[in-house]
Design goal:
Elements lengths: L3 E2 L9 E3 L4 E2 L7 E2 L12 E2 L14 E2 L2 E5 L10 E8 L18 E6 L6 E3 L2 E4 L2 E6 L5 E9 L8 E9 L15 E3 L2 E6 L8 E9 L2 E2 L12 E6 L5 E4 L15 E7 L4 E11 L2 E11 L22
Parallel strand pairs: 2-21
Antiparallel strand pairs: 1-4, 2-3, 5-20, 6-7, 7-8, 8-12, 9-10, 9-13, 11-12, 13-14, 15-16, 16-17, 17-18, 17-21, 19-20, 19-22, 22-23
């Protein structure tokens, strides 16, 4: 029996699908939390090339592009300069990218047990080599994802590779699906139902000290960024809400609505990045996609409602 997770009604609709398709919406919905692929465009999602049916992040190589780290072993607990490149169909490091939400590349890190989430933004060191300081807090296997669109390429891609932090790996069980995510005195309530293979509208409502937050700050050209990882294989999805700060119709909270399509039944971990009072935080949820759940109503265009991690 599924437990419903409540969110809010941020009229930002955005469609994103693990494995490719797009859609747009802008209304509120319910999120069922009992129980990737990634494309950025006017709808604000990151997704894979639509020619691919493989969920994003499961491949180190796709369409001739390969994620190539300089090391796949990092000492846990030590600050590290992680360096990598993306090689193109010609075998050379790619040096020109089209910006995705203000950055040429996004790097997402999570341990295989879905803990240790980080959303990072590397800088170019020259010659197509990218670098970012990071710390892997505990031993274990980690998955590193990069979202990008190479200049002149037909679509955006998410590639993934494994990096190991040697030591005594003690995996944590994913927290059960819950009603509210809490971080730094903020509460984030989700509303919606994840239905496999269908667009599910999830609305996330942010409050602090019991009061709705109505002055969220733009972070990477949006009022929210949602990453979804599937349990066990870490299939990946990164979506943004429809609308944009300053467009005259998108309110800065308390609610943000995302259109999400997960590829299969099962357990997922959701990470919402939002910025308030000059600081980016990440609220984390567990949700289960269930074929028995009723689908949410399709989102409508034109709505006008309205973690700390390394960067």
């Amino acid at each position: 029996m599924n437990t419903a997770i409540k969110l809010g009604a941020f009229a930002l609709g955005l469609a994103a699908v693990f494995g490719g398709a797009a859609g747009v919406g802008a209304a509120v919905g319910p999120i069922d939390a009992t129980a990737g692929t990634h494309k950025t465009g006017s709808t604000g999602r990151h997704g894979p090339n639509t020619s691919s049916h493989v969920p994003a992040g499961l491949q180190v190589s796709q369409d001739g592009y390969t994620l190539t780290p300089e090391t796949t072993t990092i000492t846990p607990g030590e600050r590290t300069d992680f360096r990598f490149s993306v090689t193109g169909p010609d075998g050379r490091p790619v040096t020109r990218f089209e910006p995705l939400h203000g950055k040429p590349l996004h790097l997402i890190v999570a341990r295989r047990d879905l803990s240790g989430f980080q959303h990072l933004h590397p800088t170019e060191a020259g010659g197509g080599v990218w670098t970012v300081p990071l710390t892997l807090p505990e031993p274990g296997p980690y998955r590193f994802f990069t979202d990008f669109k190479a200049a002149g390429a037909s679509g955006q891609l998410t590639l993934g590779t494994d990096v190991t932090a040697p030591g005594d790996y003690r995996p944590r069980a994913a927290p059960p699906a819950g009603q509210v995510a809490k971080v730094d005195g903020y509460e984030v309530k989700p509303t919606g139902t994840l239905v496999p293979g269908r667009s599910s509208r999830l609305t996330l409502s942010v409050s602090r000290d019991g009061r709705p937050v109505t002055d969220l700050e733009p972070y990477l050209e949006a009022y929210g960024h949602l990453v979804v990882l599937r349990d066990r294989d870490l299939a990946y999805l990164h979506v943004h809400p429809d609308g944009a700060p300053g467009d005259g119709r998108t309110r800065p909270g308390p609610d943000a609505t995302f259109e999400v399509e997960v590829p299969s039944p099962g357990r997922y971990r959701l990470y919402l990045d939002f910025q308030h009072a000059g600081k980016v935080r990440t609220a984390e949820f567990t949700a289960v996609a269930d074929n028995t759940a009723p689908p949410t109503a399709p989102a409508q265009d034109g709505g006008d409602d309205g973690h700390d991690h390394g960067h």
